[in-house]
Amino acid sequence: MHLFPANLSEILNTLPEQATQRLNLIAVETLRAAHMPPFSPDSATLLLGEWNTPLEEHARHLLATVYPADHPLMWVLPKKPSRIFSLQTWQSPTPAGGTLYIAPLENGSSLESFQEIIAHLRAPDGCPWDREQTHQTLRKHLLEESYETLDAIDAGNATKMREEFGDLLLQIVLNAQIGFESSEFNMAEIIKGVYDKIIRRHPHVFGEVQVSGVNQVLSNWENLKQEERRQDGEMEKGMLDGLPAALPALSLAQEIQDRAARVGFDWPEISGVLEKIREEIDEVNRAETQPEVAEELGDVFFVLSNFARWKGVDAESALREANLKFRRRFAWMESRARVMNCSLKEMSPQALDDLWNQAKQQLSTAPKQ
Is residue 244 one of the residues assigned to a domain? Predict the structure, then answer.
């Protein structure tokens, strides 16, 4: 069946004038195996072709991944008044011969729209600050935005997460624009590269490979990476090569141990990890010089991060949360001391301990800020 219906001109004439300026024409069947809408949501869309109930139900779920529940839709019916409704009020069955029109989201809701404004910022009539940026000058901003995103995740603040993920996307798109201008790479190449990599490294999803669980997935991942390097003519690297040295120390320790475990270099039971913790603490107690203490404490931190890995806990996030918890409690103590017209440094150890216990009790059920 040809994609375009014989009455396409008639259908187009029923649409709002601005819709036909940027209009996606999509065959309904392309939705059947999709997990996300395969078109830009800030352009109007016509879904062309015949519907059936299972496909209609799938399409409704698919559109809900991008469009809000009250988003306007319209059945364009031949020689009949069009039927306007929303995603939330979509009802079966589809009107016979109806073509679904999806109104566009507001401008700026697609990656392409965002790339446009970033390119504009870098253009001769753009922003002087943005035009001066390079990969190196943006490096510190990428790091800062990454940590701000982690703060939002640790706080469980969905509003802040959405904002900070947007700031991270800004860094990526801005670097992609700089890469294009310097003939290094462009956004399409970035996306295509990681798209191919994900498919290549998930043969158990996109191919015929069978896996028994997460451990086999990770083992296959490492084997595929090694094969990619050989095909690219790179020297064979060790399991721990390529780990970014700039990672926070706890995250790096956990990643090192996780990779070593993929080839079987690990304790068979968690009891071995606990015994190693006790052993390392004893060695700290026996250390006599400052360098020895520092070295043994490093071993303690290293094995504690491994214990966290065994427990399925991200060590870096756990320590960040402990830091935040201490800061909240200490700030409460300072606030309480001001109410008591005294300072913490004037209080006895016992009074400080009592105040600390009060802070723990007061903040144990308080929502996180």
Answer: no
Find all residues with CB under 8 Å of 320, minimum gap 6, and list them.
150, 154
Range of the domain at 281: 249-313
- Distance CA(98)–CA(331), nearest Å, equals 62
Find out whether 27 and 45 touch, Cβ atoms under 8 Å. Answer: no
Does residue 195 share a domain with residue 125?
yes
Q: Do 58 and 87 reside in the same domain of the chain?
A: yes
pLDDT for 42 equals: 92
Quick one: 253 and 170 in the same domain? no
Least confident residue range of 13-27, 118-132, 190-204: 13-27
Beta-strand ranges (E) seen in the chain are: 23-27, 44-48, 72-76, 83-86, 99-102
Q: What is the value of pTM for the model shown?
A: 0.70
The predicted structure's pLDDT at residue 334: 92
- Per DSSP, 99 falls in state E
Q: Which of 102, 136, 153 is the last residue of a domain?
A: 102
Residue in this structure with the two tokens 């392309």, named with its chain if needed: 30
Sheet with 83-86: strands ordered across: 23-27, 44-48, 99-102, 72-76, 83-86
Same domain assignment for residues 195 and 205: no
Asked if residue 240 has pLDDT above 90, the reply is no
Cα atoms in the Cβ-side hemisphere of radius 13 Å centred on 103? 15
Q: pLDDT by residue (tens digit) across 19-33?
A: 778 899 998 889 988
